[in-house]
Amino acid sequence: MNSEIQDLVNKGEMLPLMEEFYTIQGEGYHKGTAAYFIRVGGCDVGCHWCDVKESWNAELHPPTQISKIVENAKKYSDTIVITGGEPLTWDMTPLTKQLKALGMQVHIETSGAYKLTGIWDWICLSPKKLKLPTQEVYDKANELKVIVYNKDDFRFAEEQAAKVNKDCILYLQPEWSKRDKVVPEIVDYVMKHPKWKVSLQTHKYLNIP
User: Fold this and answer.
1) Do the annotations mark residue 39 as ligand-binding?
2) Most exposed: 37, 44, 70, 142, by fewest CB within 10 Å?
């Protein structure tokens, strides 16, 4: 990557775009609603169960002008979900400013491990043990979504729930490959601790992206 392009990426005026697609939000509070997803490459959080490991290496995904990303997005939906990878690896302010200027609802799905940039209508925080969120993301998160892979994740979930703001909605979501084992454990846990809700990857059950 030449230095001019690298400078634009550093400023958030270009982003390593992995993919963009219009689909149904499958998880969390907005599940079942149509949204346009922008998946940005680059992540060093390194979850072993990540289902989009191809997003980790930003160099595999072409730096794309944010004006082009916005142009594509506005054709499809008023609700935009920016995900990754880890989108906060990059400065999200230029992209979200352009989307908000068009009156769009802009959501992010993030581990919260980096500085919070951007203008957001909804922040879905999905914290990871390897790199914990910043305090600002805890303070501003609208929903907390903890992935349950094993029993220790319930302990981690409570630890994280103690750090978010009082209005944050709490979700436990089974890791897809372990769903047969952990779904009954999650159901039992939520029934005993009703401040939590169950989140399922409904898009996978519906067999859509």
Assistant:
1) yes
2) 44
